[in-house]
Amino acid sequence: MIVQEPQCPGPLMDYSPHLLVDLLFQVFDSTEQTSEEVNTFWRGCQEQHDLPTDPNRFAVLTMKALLCCLHWEDGVNSVEDNGGWARLLNAHSRRYAVALLAREKRHVSRPLCSRITLHLLELLSREELCWDLPAMAFLVEVLDCLDTKECGDRVLETLSRNLGSTNKKRRQLALRVVVALSQDPVMAESIWSLSERLVQLLGDADRDVVWMTLSVLDHVLWTSLWTRRHERVRSKDPLISTPTGLQLAEALRPLFDHDDSSVRQGSMVLFSRVIKVIEREGKRPLKPLVCLSLLPLYFHRHDEKVLVKRASQGALLAVTRFLKRRDLGHLVNTEEPWSFGECLLKKDRRRVAKYMHQALPYLRSPQQPLREAAVKFMGIAGGYLRGQPNELQLIIDALQAITDDSSPTVSSLALEIIRFVGNVQTAPYPRFQQLRDQLCGAWNSRPSLWG
Known about the structure:
Layout: H1 10-14, H2 16-31, H3 36-49, H4 55-69, H5 73-81, H6 84-88, H7 94-108, H8 110-124, H9 132-142, H10 148-163, H11 168-182, H12 195-201, H13 207-230, H14 242-252, H15 261-281, H16 287-300, H17 306-322, H18 326-329, H19 338-347, H20 352-359, H21 368-384, H22 389-400, H23 408-424, H24 429-445
Helix pairs in contact: 2-4, 2-8, 7-8, 7-9, 8-9, 9-11, 10-11, 11-13, 12-13, 12-14, 13-15, 14-15, 15-17, 16-17, 19-21, 20-21, 21-23, 21-24, 22-23, 23-24
């Protein structure tokens, strides 16, 4: 009744952001199960004032009238043309409707959007809020209207709770907000306060969640490093503490073998950045973990995806520098794919059995080049496991299981290595050296996919 007056009172205009949010809340609350007490009250209002049957529909009509009162008729019509008002009445599509409403408002009035968002942040801080998904959907669309210097910490506080939610959609929306915030240099280092939550999300089963998390961490780390270097920002605190760096590196390593190539690439790029940062603070705690990354990166140097190949190459170079292994670094780009594995095992003979066990899963890789690399690595490892019959038998059994591989190259290589490993135990040392030389020569002359 008030908004239908020719001249709206000033307080109505001043409190319009709060009124719009409260009307949205009424719509969301009404689409949920309504108590009998509320239904009885509404029936009385309906009979007395001839109101619409549904209270949520009346709330939408009131919202549209308020927006028109604010001279936003074009926005109301645009939302109508895109089916936004009808979707707002449906509990399953209301997040889409809120996002549409936010985009339209942002185009027309950024100050109004900013005031609405600040009020939403106040409401999102309440644990009992039942419509935080739509509220987050609004927030992600209008972040650029906010002054992050003033309210960035409040946004991060809200995001921290939602990133740890068991609700998949809530996690995704919260991550979308973090992705948008990470583009703001002012927020870069502050986002590290969410690092514990973000590291946990790297183990999420949802590919999109993992990819967005990698994007946030990589962008924030790069921005923070650039800021400290180029703007000469001095801080006594390290950008990444050693415990956080360890947790992050440990969470990244399994992603090298992720089914999605974008995740593989992103995890390798971020891993390179992390070890470079940690190296400045003290690399001893990270060294064992970095050693475990050598073999996966070595195999993915021959990944079928070109971008993953490049990322693994860059990560291998970073890792070899970290470990001060110039001998390995020189072999990263070699045309002789077996030479890296040979050098790795020759200089670290105590870990040959561990490396062999680490390589076993790659015999079943969906990518032929990786299977081929794993088979050849088994041959190299077998040569250094002389005198360890149990480990040699494990190699033979694993290779025997792939002699029927779909790739003739892989199956043929497996048979060659089985014969070689079978002779390792019994052949005299000079004969053993001759056999290994013959095997390496055969690898070099064989046409393969390794180039």
